[in-house]
């Protein structure tokens, strides 16, 4: 059933709204302009664990639903957004984690697909770029990340990070990077 403007969205829980988003029964998140703000009392830990009031959210369906309501504003603050309100959420490191990599094809024509810890499948392409970012731990070096819609990104799990490292190649300009969907994600000059 498509979104009905007369639907009483304010009577729904965050979980119910997240499910409607996943089923594409509501307009896209970026079209919502909520007037009310608050605190979700939620946090996403560096390992992808979601907490509410300090307790672990154990139901994967709830985490999937909430993750579909996530966005990051221009100031780097994270929110759970609904059509009528946005609730702040603490993100300790990355909002999502790329837990699996699937590669189709080779070289310039290869296509890279990632399964995120919320079970979404995304492709690295012109909009969802692969990049390196300093890890949050004191011993962390650069870690692969993938940009996502709504100002979000996914951090590569350790296994996915090493799989991506194996795919680094040099382009015709001597830059090191990774190809996906005819896009070259430049990681810098060769030393």
UniProtKB/TrEMBL annotation:
Residue ranges annotated for the DUF1285 domain, each copy included: 27-94, 95-187
Name of this chain's protein: DUF1285 domain-containing protein
Lineage of the organism: Bacteria, Pseudomonadati, Pseudomonadota, Alphaproteobacteria, Sphingomonadales
């Amino acid at each position: 059933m498509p979104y009905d403007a007369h639907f009483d969205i304010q009577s729904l829980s965050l979980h119910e709204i997240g499910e409607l988003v996943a089923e594409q029964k509501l307009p896209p998140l970026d079209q919502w302009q909520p007037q009310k703000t608050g605190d979700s009392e939620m946090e996403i830990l560096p390992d992808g664990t979601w907490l509410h009031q300090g307790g672990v959210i154990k139901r994967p369906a709830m985490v999937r639903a909430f993750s579909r309501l996530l966005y990051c504003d221009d100031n780097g603050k994270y929110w759970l957004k609904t059509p009528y309100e946005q609730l702040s959420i603490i993100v300790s490191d990355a909002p999502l984690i790329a837990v699996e990599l699937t590669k189709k094809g080779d070289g310039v024509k290869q296509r890279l697909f990632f399964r995120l810890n919320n079970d979404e499948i995304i492709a690295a392409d012109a909009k969802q770029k692969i990049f390196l970012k300093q890890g949050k731990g004191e011993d962390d070096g650069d870690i692969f990340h993938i940009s996502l819609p709504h100002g979000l990104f996914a951090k590569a799990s350790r296994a996915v990070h090493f799989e991506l490292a194996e795919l680094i190649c040099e382009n015709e300009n001597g830059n090191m990077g990774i190809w996906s969907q005819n896009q070259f994600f430049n990681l810098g000059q060769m030393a």
